[in-house]
## 1
Amino acid sequence: MAHHDAEVSHATADDEYLNTTDASGHEHTDVNVWMIVQFAIWLMGSAVVVHVLMGLMFVWFVETRESVSAPQFPLAVGQEQRLPAGPRLQRFPANEIVEFRQRESRELNSYGWIDRNAGTVHIPIADAMRLTVERGLPSRAPTAPADAAPSGEAPSMMPSDSSSGRMMERRR
């Protein structure tokens, strides 16, 4: 028994790997080559199956799409094609903004009617500014102070300095 232990034991851990005279060329305890070959076969087989199924599904999707006509919506049955209400996408936004600005410029720099029946016109902006400076802005006629209002009348509405223009009733 002691003799058998002497044959199996090694002086160092590396001694067992020194003998390379084995005919197979590799150590059988490290790798199971047949398991690696089986894994590669199963991997290739499953890859082929998956690709075949994907190809068949793609063909089925194409045939299904080509066989179906345009979708019919229940609210659109019996109506011709019409554009939706409201704002839509601009076809040529750069051209539209140039046309819009030209139209605004013509309107700001020319004379024209706004409402012919009411006698309302528009004038060039430069003329409007000049007339405003010459004539001044309209203002309200000064009113008597609320304290001086005769009895029986409602107190006058007078904005205070911090009212931002809001009219508030002055209380006594």
## 2
Amino acid sequence: MAADRRRLIVVSNRGPVVHGRDDAGRLVARRGGGGLVTALDSLAAEHDVIWIASALSDEDRVVAAEAGGAFEERSRSGSAFRLRLLDHDREAYARYYNVVANPVLWFIQHGLWDASQPPVAGERLEEAWTTGYAIVNRSFADAVLSELEADPDATVFFHDYHLYLAPRMVRDQAPDATLAHFVHIPWVGADVWSVLPAHIREAIHEGLLANDLAGFHSERWRRSFAEACVSLAGAEAEGTTILQAGRRTATTAHPISVDPAEFDALATSGPVLEREGRIRTDQDEKLVVRVDRTDPSKNILRGLEAFELLLERHPEHRGRVRMVALLDPSRQDIAEYASYTASIVRLAAAVNARAGAPVVDLRIEDDFPLSVAAYKQYDVLLVNPTADGLNLVAKEGPLINERDGVLVLSRGAGAADELGRWAVTVDPLDVSGQAEALHHALVMPAAERRARLEGIRAQVREHDISRWVAALMADLDRIAAGRRG
């Protein structure tokens, strides 16, 4: 084994594959999407990986039961890794995921908690926290501990808001383990966390401080975490290190990225080429494209309002500009998400009715090749979340765009810290400002459009997913060297 090759235990709620059935009823593994799954290609190629995740489908549970532990899988590039799927109690998982993780933690950390509305609090939250979130985190921690018994020198790499308690649970029983946790969503200040009961918000911060390393996509999220730890967990900040209860936790900021070679290949693949005809019908027409999940944090309603305002204020764009909104339905079994999706459908229909023409082409479906086809054809890419840990759409689209498209990017996205100099940046709550940003992008001189696109493209190609993985591994190496010193 090479000296720099690590043994990694990757831990996340969603794994790299979900099992299902094909038309013939045969068990098949379907590859997941997203930055974390893409990162596995680099991890599995360069390190020995076991991935622990939740069994999310009935077929996942069948596979987990038959395997009786971890079984071999392969990354997209063909590198081997082991996958261990956890079959949680279904009621506990529902409380963990549908009551705590998404309606509460996701909303709080994306600035969407509405203090004027009745919160998920009191006995319901306490019960879901104790008999759901804590139970599922315990299940993950026990699985990690069993892997550490077999390999105490492995590094544990937790991911995201689903697993805030697990690191402390592992640390209590494996005090010398090397633990890291990457948070893929924004971190908010102590005042925002105050909507939660004191013992819950303290447990969240203390759980993350059980790690040797806590990582974020943006320096502002890292800074917010440090400030919240000082305020809520009685910690001290010493540069980028946080000291609490005799432990030192290093904090770092590395924006995740994509694999440019993967998108180069996708752009010329059969499914994408076939779908390009579904996107563009008139070469004189300009397209404003957005590609999102239907999460409330994606700010889709204000984006639709801004597009309508663009056409009202600048009638020269009428009949010449169309919005294509490709939305992946997200968490529709959670009331807040289903309601938001319904609001999107209603508003898009209303905009079209008022315009007297189908100026908004709304498609709510899981069709990634269609999104890639739209990336190639946009004149303006609208990415306007209220808040995002990063936002990979802002990186994916410019890589393969063929029309010198302009990125209109919310300052609330972590990606704005990295790409803002080449984008037209907007306040996510300012509908008027977004309308003017769209106009500015549409009438921008060709040379400026090309320069901005090439700037983003060069940044993303240089700072790709492999570089993100390497930066995190280098952080862990420094921590290990400090221990030896």
## 3
Amino acid sequence: MFNVVTGTGADAGAPLVSHPGLAKVAFTGSTATGRRVALAAAQNLRPATMELGGKSALIVFDDADLDKAVEWAMFGCFWTNGQICSATSRLLVQEKVAEAFLAKLKRRAEQIPLGAADGSPLCPGSRLGPVANRDQYTKVKAYIESARSEGARVLTGGGRPSGAPSDGRGFFVAPTVLVGVNPTMRVWREEIFGPVLCAATFATEEEAVSAANASNFGLGGAVVSRDAQRCARVARQLEAGIVWVNCSQPCFYQAPWGGIKDSGHGRELGPWGLDNFLSVKQVTEYVSDKPWGWYLDVAPADGGAEGAGERPPSPSKL
């Protein structure tokens, strides 16, 4: 049986996750809401799996194929208009190739074809639609303005794309790349949930890993390099539940999905996802024809009542 209950968080979600008849909670959403859901479930000692927010990093090394790296950087952040928790929205590019990489990224981002607000294509092969609603649109634009005020520069985007409907339909945000971003800025630390890619540079592998891990989130991460050993080494060090090598965002139902730190706990998909819904039961059957005997052949202590001064039998009597 499968039931669907619709409603707002206050009217439907909160009563549901706090109900004592619930056996298990699996939540996907923001970190802030996830904390409230987990606390509500904990009041009834119910297990809860949390798949929460992210601010994943994509690391591009100077030996990477830049054209392929640009493609994955765009897909990793602009797919679904950036409205995906695993988006690799923090871009780390090695200094030696940063200028060439960002030039390619700017040119390609400005060529992404738009889709219409009603789902029909504005142009063939549309790949970018509007964000979900007015509130999300306002939030994304506020983050971009926050970055500007903190000293970041808009390499491309930052407003409504030129190809969007002229009558104002659709909450379109142009694919936006911010450069000159540093770790203290809100856009680098917080999940935006829109088509906004924040770029920074690094000099060494150690610096790149440190910058990628310097986040409260730990959902995803990606590394792009022709050096297989480097990719394996960086993948091991990234503090994330999901790591992509020479790609970003491919998802397979056979593979575990979930994060660490503020990105939650537990896993979805594959056998790991099923494990979250199972409870292990121990069943012990006594098959010996000998009595357990813990109360047999025990002499009373000091002539007291039978059973007084009992002691466990020796192993040979079990």
## 4
Amino acid sequence: MVNKITAAELASVQARGSAQLIDICSPTESASGHVPGAVNISMEQIGAHIADLRIGAPVVLICKSGQRACATAQRLKASRTDVLVLDGGTRAWRESGGQIVRNTRTGWSLERQVRLGAGLLVLGGVVLSLVWNRSWIGLSAFVGLGLTFAGLTDICGMAFLLTKMPLNKVRRESPPEMARDHSCAV
């Protein structure tokens, strides 16, 4: 059983500064929108950062919907007894009127952009091979090979290219009204 905290309760805890907020999303997903004051330690890295978590203050885990945070809380049970999960995640926070901090111009995580791009390329390759020329199936095979390579090595060429796009550039200094955006699509 995982202990949960509502967005309203989190706002009160945050005002008192009595908890450590950890955004367990990937760095790019966190950059596309996170709760103010949350430190980004991805779900995959949280085990390596147990010693970095403050002692004596509860830890609130936050993700997009709350599901990954629940899974991470289960993993931390052996190490910490004071772990809470934001019920409903960043979405619930935003829907309750909480501010969202954005560090990129896009609200789409890099992972989501890669999935969309890869899916469109595979679909395009299949359709073109059926209606134009069978050799277009090579495009789908190339994307499949790239995804397999990315899964094995954690190096994704498409993600690298997408980070170079203007919409994925991290803002170095942004005006407060742009850094805290209530309309973030998280």
